[in-house]
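Slide 14.
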Amino acid sequence: LVTYFHGHRWDVGGALEAHGVFARLAALGRQDPQTLVVLPQAGAAPFVSWMSARAHPPESLAQLEVQALALVARRVGREVTVAHRIVDAHSGGNRAVRNAAQSGELVADKLNLLDAAYGTTVADVIVWAERERRAGRPARVEAWFTTASSEHVEFAARHATLRASVAGAIVHDVTRTHEHNAIPRHALGSRW
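Slide 15: predicted structure.
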């Protein structure tokens, strides 16, 4: 199960089309035909309440998964079992990950941060990863970032903190190879 939270200034379909992600989704399907991808549409930017129990009405990552699996089960005529959960956040989609982590609803075998280290995201992911480790579920975190614009300059330091704080975290500085909106096309749904 891959859940992808898109960034600001896009609807989910527009983000997939504009960023060339449809080919990546097709490749994931060829790689593992059992892959289920959930593509929730965010509300209005800045997504402050996306996947937040404090939203009105409350939003829930756990409930999103239940709804998606029920929809698929109805379509295929049988219950669907999830073997692995991958959660991806691109750019402003980090808010959904932050809110789910803060509320204790972030359940992921792998978390991919796609140029998404804004605000307290890295600190929230570190707390989540430590909580997972203590519960016997070591977190797998992989992050891609650029430092191409002034608003991304702090990303290198945040990612160094992530690498130092989460055992096995993998961090890629892709400033020279990818621009911000191209990262999902190359990394969405990355497995371990």
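Speaker note: The first helix runs from residue 12 to 18.
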